[in-house]
Amino acid sequence: MKQLFINIKELLQVRDHPVDKLSGAELRELPVLKNAWMLIEDDIITDYGLMDSLPKINADKTIDTQGKIILPTWCDSHTHIVYAGNRELEFADRIKGLSYQEIANRGGGILNSAKTLQETSEEEVYKQSAKRLEEVMKLGTGAVEIKSGYGLTQEGELKMLRVIKKLKQHYDIPIKATFLGAHAIPKEYKERPGAYMDLVIEEILPQVAQEKLAQYIDIFCEKGYFSVEDTHKLLAAASKFGLKPKIHVNQFNAIGGIQAGIKHNALSVDHLEVMRPEDIESLKGTGTMPVALPCCSLFLSIPYTPAREMLNAGLPLALASDFNPGSSPSGNMNLVVSLACIKMKMTPEEAINAATVNAAYAMELSKTHGSISRGKKANFILTKEIPSYTFLPYAFGTNSIESVFINGKMLV
Ligand code: NIG
Ligand code: FE
Fold first, then answer.
1. CATH architecture label of 75-361
2. Mutate to test the pocket of ligand 1, among 110, 223, 270, 274 (most ligand atoms within 8 A of CB)
3. Which neighbouring-strand residues pair with 176?
4. Fewer beta carbons within 10 Å, N or C terminal of the chain?
5. Where are the domains of the chain?
């Protein structure tokens, strides 16, 4: 079916020659066609141009988008959307003065979510997670990565990854699965963390690989969680199964996780709230995408990723939601983009590039997603009537989205 969109006030992120990623000053430029048209055929964008030179097109349906903006759907390259229950009581405890680490030390945090996950049936986990996925799709997310990591036993981790597989079968957006067995050390292994690493590497990982349940490997490389040495060991083992790293590093402490990721050709290194000069230096000239998670900084009141320093140093940067029950119970990419502007001093152009083109790179989706380009998937956001694209991050907390199209079909 041919659908023609006409009178588009701004057609954003239009690229005749799509790029894989944008670095440094390249992010400042966001290509826009003003007063444009766009043609999609079934699930593919086939053409676009200016209204002045609209050719005769025999479309099955013509949509007049007067005053509205079209942009590619957000790509969310870092989420933990699959989980059971919530942690709103810990939220209240933090307001009363406990820190995220203090809550974790007394058995809350990730271990709390792991307990709930283990006690919840696969169907129920699926039901709760599907609801969240539908919610973020309506907020404009058109591709998503989802991690395991609240199982922390062979059974629990496989349960989570099977839920992700089922989401892939039921929903029309690309979903990438990441195995995060090394998310926290379970209580039973507190005195012998090495034995848990052995379980992850020798038992769970081979099973995950055999059942082809994940494309990527992740580890929480952080004081009190997993060391740089653990990270090397796990990433080396995972690479034998073809799993590329996308890892949690530099959230509270800079301990060398970035360098470990780069050594194993990580697709991305994520969080980066604490960055030393040598961390920025190490990322230069690599294929590893740094990923910032501003909703986590907001929710935990921790520093924001120093985006300006990183972009000024010529690095690329992607933005993601980190949607999870403990540090970011929101998967709203519109808020992520707003926070990047407000708190990280990224320009609207930089933030939108980081949440589309660069975020697609962080999920190896550059060929099909991340921009309005001929031949790419017809996954895009149609806004309400708004004055300009800058209004999107400016009007934070306002839903400026009228509808979302996935593979050429409007979400209802
Ligand atoms: O990305 N930092 C590690 N993992 C998650 C939070 C997990 C949780 O608190 O449940 C994150 O912030
Ligand atoms: Fe995370």
1. Alpha-Beta Barrel (3.20)
2. 110
3. 145
4. C
5. 2-73+371-410, 75-361
Tens of pLDDT, residues 304-347? 999 999 999 999 999 999 999 999 999 999 999 999 999 999 99
Task: Kindly report the CATH number that applies to the domain delimited by 2-73+371-410.
Answer: 2.30.40.10
Q: Rounded mean pLDDT of 202-222?
A: 98
Q: Cβ atoms within 10 A of the Cβ of 268, count? A: 28
pLDDT tens sequence across 87-118:
999 999 999 999 999 999 888 999 999 999 99
List Cα–Cα distances, 213 to 148, 246, 297, 336, 377, in angstroms. Answer: 10, 16, 30, 28, 24
Helix (H, G, I), strand (E, B), or coil: what is residue 141? Answer: strand
In the beta sheet, which residues pair with residue 23?
Answer: 316
The count of residues in the chain is 412
Q: What is the pTM of this model?
A: 0.98
CA distance 194 to 213: 24
State the chain's mean pLDDT as an integer.
Answer: 98
CA of 323 to the centre of ligand 1 (A): 9
**Token pair for residue 36?**
């444009």
Ligand 1: list residues with CB < 6 Å.
109-110, 113, 220, 248, 251, 296, 322, 324-327
**What's the CA-to-centroid distance between 156 and ligand 2, angstroms?**
18
